[in-house]
Amino acid sequence: MTSIIRMFFQRLRLESLLAIPYGWIYKAAFRRIGAASFVSPFIQAVGLDCVTLGNRSRISRNTRLLALKSYGSQVFSPDIVIGDNVSIGFGCTLSCVNRLVIGHDVTIGDNVYLADSHHDYSNPALGVLSQPLLTGEVVIGQGAWIGYGAFVAGNVSVGEHAVVGANSVVTRSVPAYTVVAGVPARPVKRFDHGTQCWVKVNVDANK
Predict the structure, then answer these.
(1) How many other C-beta atoms are found inside a 10 Å radius of the C-beta of residue 44?
(2) Residue 104: active-site member
(3) Which of 40, 110, 111, 144 is the Cys-Cys partner for 89 at CB 3.0 to 4.6 Å?
(4) Does 184 sit behind a cis peptide bond, omega within 30 degrees of 0 on the bond before it?
(5) Measured distance CA(133)–CA(20) in Å, rounded
């Protein structure tokens, strides 16, 4: 146990030291990176020139930041926009071929998957990887919270101050001030502005 703790702190120290030179590299590589933002040197990145990062935001280690400009014969113009005061947890994937927008003050938990595309599978004579990507747009509204391990992909939006529960699969857009959970994700609570309380939703009504 002691060796694990020691290794953990050694990695933190290495990350802090590498963050200094990598900060200059990222400033040149990103389309824009705002003031007081932190990007771990331990990320996987493709197409950082298509990524805008706001002020005081954080992208944690082991995250994959993928702005894909081509897939097979398809050519794309990806656009990833991450706002101010955004926290992106460990081991996340942000994959974009069209447009992926994360608003201000959004919190994204560890191991979250966000993608604005998915594979076509309409031709059963071909393997999935031989078929084209179907593009959409993912928009995460201001103040939203995406819980651990959530999957958000396709052409969907998550409204402002909405909450996506851990390990949920979002297949359709989430209204503002709504908590969703499950596979597929369904509303379980909504914020009542009159009472200033979160109110449970009748789950059966969502079917």
Answers:
(1) 10
(2) no
(3) 110
(4) yes
(5) 37
Q: Which amino acid is at 73?
A: S
CA dihedral 56, 57, 58, 63 (to 10 degrees): -160
Sign of CA pseudo-dihedral 190, 101, 44, 17: negative
Q: What would the two tokens of residue 3 be?
A: 């060796």
- Dig out the tokens for 131 from the structure: 């078929």
Q: Which residue has the tokens 């990176």?
A: 33
Q: What is the CATH number of the domain that holds 131?
A: 2.160.10.10
How many Å apart are CA 180 and CA 150, to the nearest integer? 11
Q: What is the pTM of this model?
A: 0.89
- 84's CB contacts (< 8 A; 6+ apart) are 34, 54, 55, 56, 57, 104, 105
From first to last of the 207 residues of the chain, give the pLDDT tens digit: 556 545 554 555 677 777 777 878 999 999 999 999 999 999 999 999 999 999 999 999 999 999 999 999 999 999 999 999 999 999 999 999 999 999 999 999 999 999 999 999 999 999 999 999 999 999 999 999 999 999 999 999 999 999 999 999 998 999 999 999 999 999 999 999 999 999 999 866 555
Instruction: State the sign of the Cα–Cα–Cα–Cα dihedral 153, 156, 162, 168.
Output: negative
| Non-local CB neighbours of 169 within 8 Å, separated by 6+ positions | 150, 151, 182, 183, 184, 185
The one catalytic residue among 104, 118, 119, 193: 119
Residue-range definition of the domain harbouring residue 195: 2-206
